[in-house]
Amino acid sequence: MIAGTRTRSGSPTAARTRGPVPVGPVLLDMGIVGLWSVVAGLVGAFVWVHVTPLPKVTKVGNAAVTPAEELVKQVGMDGWFFVIALVGGLLSGVILTAWRRRDPLLMVALVTLGGGLSSWLMIEVGHALGPGSERAALRKLADGAHVSEQLRLHASGVGWVWPIMAAFGALIFLWVLEKPRDEAEPAATMR
User: Fold this and answer.
1) CA 129, CA 88: separation in Å to the nearest integer?
2) What is the chain's mean pLDDT, rounded?
3) How many CB atoms are located within 10 Å of the residue 174 CB?
4) Short-list 131, 181, 138, CA closest to 152
5) Which DSSP string corresponds to the chain?
6) For the whole model, what pTM was predicted?
7) Distance between CA atoms of residues 89 and 105, nearest Å
8) What sign does the dihedral 123-124-128-132 (CA atoms) show?
9) Distance CA 127, CA 9 (A)
10) What are phi and psi of 178, to 5 degrees?
């Protein structure tokens, strides 16, 4: 309603204005989501490095060749990233939204951005923790030598799984798991 208008009963009403958004709680939410996202991305990278079987690359002349039977492991790199990002994103979205539910719209935006940070960290730290460049390692070896391929994503779109699933997890909490406020707070005046 507009300020100064009258309701059907004739009484004046004041306009409902929302005051300025308090900055302190917003910064606290941003800090919690940011810290969670960094830790989750680092844990995801550690898991990705340790569960992914890396394909072997063979030196043939001046070239690095991946045998056909090792190509399946390249798909496995992306597959393991997908699984870890799916679980990490869903858990991040649900847990953070349940924990910090003061402003649901802000939390959906923050967990989505945090999911992007987690995904980026998982890719970069996983790459750093994995083996070095296979070409550099093969330069020093004789023909027929094998080294592990670097840990990296071959399908770059898989990097979007974490932020998408974080947003989806937050929405699942808000639409399915969270009880409406009327049901969540039992009425004490019913006696």
Assistant:
1) 19
2) 83
3) 18
4) 131
5) --TT-B-TT--B-------PPPHHHHHHHHHHHHHHHHHHHHHHHHHHHHHPPPPEEEEETTEEE--GGGHHHHHHHHHHHHHHHHHHHHHHHHHHHHHS-SSHHHHHHHHHHHHHHHHHHHHHHHHHHS---HHHHHHTS-TT-EEEPPP--SSGGGGGHHHHHHHHHHHHIIIIISPPHHHHS--GGG-
6) 0.77
7) 17
8) positive
9) 69
10) -75, 130
What would the pLDDT profile of 140-176 be if each residue is shown by its tens digit? 766 777 777 888 898 999 999 999 999 999 999 999 8
Closest CA to 117 of 155, 161, 163: 163
Token pair in block for residue 94: 């649900």
d(CA 147, CA 20): 59
Domain spans of the chain, in order of start: 55-177
